[in-house]
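Complex 491.
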Amino acid sequence: TTGRPRSEALYQEALKHIVGGVNSPSRSFKAVGGGAPVFMKRGQGAYFWDEDGNRYIDYLAAYGPIILGHAHPRVTAAICRAAENGTLYGTPTELEIEFARMIKAAIPSLDKVRFVNSGTEAVMTTIRVARAYTGRNKIIKFAGCYHGHSDLVLVAAGSGPSTLGIPDSAGIPISIANEVITVPYNSVEALEAALERWGDEIAAVMVEPIVGNFGMVMPKPGFLEALCAAARRNGSLVIYDEVITAFRFHYGAAQTFDGLEAQSLGCIGEQVIKSPTSPGCMGEQVMKSPASLGDTGEQVSSTSLGCTGEQATKPPAGFAAIEPDLTALGKIIGGGLPIGAYGGRKEIMEQVAPLGPAYQAGTMAGNPASISAGIACLQALQEPGLYDRLDRLAAGLEAGLADAAREHGIALTINRIRGSLSTHFCAHPVSNYEEAQDTDGEQFARFFRLMLDQGVCLAPSKYEAWFLTSAHTDEDISATVEAAERAFAAM
Ligand code: PMP
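Predicted structure with 4'-deoxy-4'-aminopyridoxal-5'-phosphate bound:
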């Protein structure tokens, strides 16, 4: 931190005026040993520069939205144009229709949408709508999945078998926490047990269809199908929180992602599990699952220096839909400006005011600046080959990090899904929150700081993903891998 005196000084000043010096707790360095976070001054493409003039390769991507890199010319132009026309009217605009059409075209489960200002608002409202539609109060969520900071979903504790929720925050009444049942991700048994026990009280099952909040974690083959089937048997709605996942892996959402569909058919292409270190594992193992139903190549992979990879299950008889009833969106769809959206089946969405009895409103909702940035962002994301490029760059990064870790005897499990990956310091696979918790936070903290001091910016938490952007280059990946080699050597 000797190279960041201005960040140090600004942090001391910020502490006097802004609670904790930050406007979102995840920005503090509390989870990586404390001290001043880096105060950034400017972002351009894959880089940003701090107040001391240091440059960083950015894998934080603002926790996900900045998939085109910073200050993408197309998005910037759209924002400038919107600003010149006035940023807020409090009336409907044609832009909102255009954007709703674009999102519906990419995510067909959305008959109707509503724009809001954040992912938190979007999720919060899907729960209200589900309760209004079903006349039930409780929801089931999965341990470690983050759905924003509204009361009901800020209840994630309990990674054991299904537990009644314990709030993760002061200020949440137990009476509210009691409306949430938390079960382990990827456990159909725990979900079914919870539905068995609280069945006719469950309004909805809420899930990140692909998890982005305790690393990047794929649903096990058949998990989402079983989830949807069990919820529907029970008369509960299925809500997908796609705030992180929508437009992340392809032009669409997780619910329309071929990799997921192929996987739920028992085919995820090639899974490479390298396990030289753990007892009972001899050398390198490469497991190939059948490539019959549309090979998804290497876009989903798990490189682990641990043991016990799980083989894809047999394709289930008859592919059941994994489409949700309601979906929450945010992050990427705002092109870097504040946004959220929710949508779903027509008859459910028609519960919302002014058509129905479920109230939701917003002074800033659908503002022309956010909508314009969102349209420009989605247009830019339609560039042919863009997502394949992210996939290729991230595959190179994954391979480089895995080789470097192996060389230095560091146990590292990398979960990669297309252009996103997570690095867990452990020797076991990470498929649920418990496994993500059981990783070496101190080692991550060291790695994080060693990378930061070499100009590579990651999120300051062992649970967060690395996000590639369309602005990253092969040179950035090489520089990052070299930095990681030096970091691992120092560790
Ligand atoms: N859902 C998920 C899956 C998220 O990752 C987040 C934010 N990280 C949210 C909801 C909340 O979104 P916001 O921060 O825009 O309120």
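The radius of gyration is 22 Å.
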